[in-house]
């Protein structure tokens, strides 16, 4: 039986098959990145929402999938036959998330334009929460002592791109120049962001929003 849950599960499965989050799938299809977010799957009146036929058509075109393949996912077949994960994309792994060192994070090719993990060169690390509960999360390994005394060399920071960020949150920021840093968000306006350094020996930073590639909240740290 065709149901709201099966349709959305099929879209999630199609995203995983291509090494993408739901947001990444929407972006690849030329849609608003939030189009397939869980918050968009139910209206303010509590009624279930369905993806539009136009959205589905764009997704199938962007992934090179046929309608028959999508319907097989609706039916619960996620074997991936005939549509493997692309070479270079990290495979979805239950209980594991992508891992990258801070130094590598400043290089190109590891993130999409929304700050979500993409491309090749990622390792994986175990994560105590199922990735499906926090789609898009990834891990960064601290390198060096610039974040002492809060974070030490070798600590693992779990980062959630696309999540809501509030004043006082610890965040990872990547500038348009490729600099990646972990800071505390002290102020954000319509034009600029002010960040406090975790290490008192390092200066606080201020950026115009146009100077920031992406910013994501640190939700957990392994120490």
From TrEMBL:
Keyword tags: DNA-binding, Transcription, Transcription regulation
Peptidase S24/S26A/S26B/S26C domain residues: 98-219
Region (Disordered): 31-53
The organism's place on the tree of life at top rank: Bacteria
Biased composition (Basic and acidic residues): 42-51
Pfam families (alphabetical): Peptidase_S24
Span of the signal peptide: none
InterPro entries on file: LexA-like, LexA/Signal_pep-like_sf, Peptidase_S24_S26A/B/C
Protein name listed in UniProt: Helix-turn-helix transcriptional regulator
């Amino acid at each position: 039986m065709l149901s709201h849950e099966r349709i959305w599960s099929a879209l999630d499965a199609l995203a995983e098959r291509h090494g993408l989050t739901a947001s990444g799938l929407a972006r690849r299809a030329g849609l608003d990145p939030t189009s397939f977010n869980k918050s968009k799957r139910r209206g303010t009146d509590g009624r279930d929402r369905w993806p539009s036929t136009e959205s589905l058509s764009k997704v199938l075109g962007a992934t090179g999938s046929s309608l028959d393949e999508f319907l097989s996912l609706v039916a619960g077949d996620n074997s991936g036959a005939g549509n493997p994960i692309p070479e270079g994309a990290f495979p979805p792994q239950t209980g594991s998330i992508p891992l990258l060192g801070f130094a590598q994070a400043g290089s190109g090719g590891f993130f999409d334009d929304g700050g979500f993990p993409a491309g090749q060169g990622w390792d994986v690390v175990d994560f105590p929460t199922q990735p499906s509960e926090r789609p898009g999360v990834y891990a960064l390994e601290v390198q060096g002592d610039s974040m002492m005394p809060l974070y030490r060399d070798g600590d693992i920071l779990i980062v959630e791109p696309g999540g809501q960020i509030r004043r006082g949150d610890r965040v990872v920021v990547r500038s348009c120049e490729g600099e990646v840093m972990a800071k505390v968000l002290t102020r954000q306006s319509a034009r600029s962001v002010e960040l406090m350094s975790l290490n008192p020996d390092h200066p606080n930073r201020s950026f115009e929003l146009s100077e920031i590639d992406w910013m994501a909240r640190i939700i957990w740290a392994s120490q």
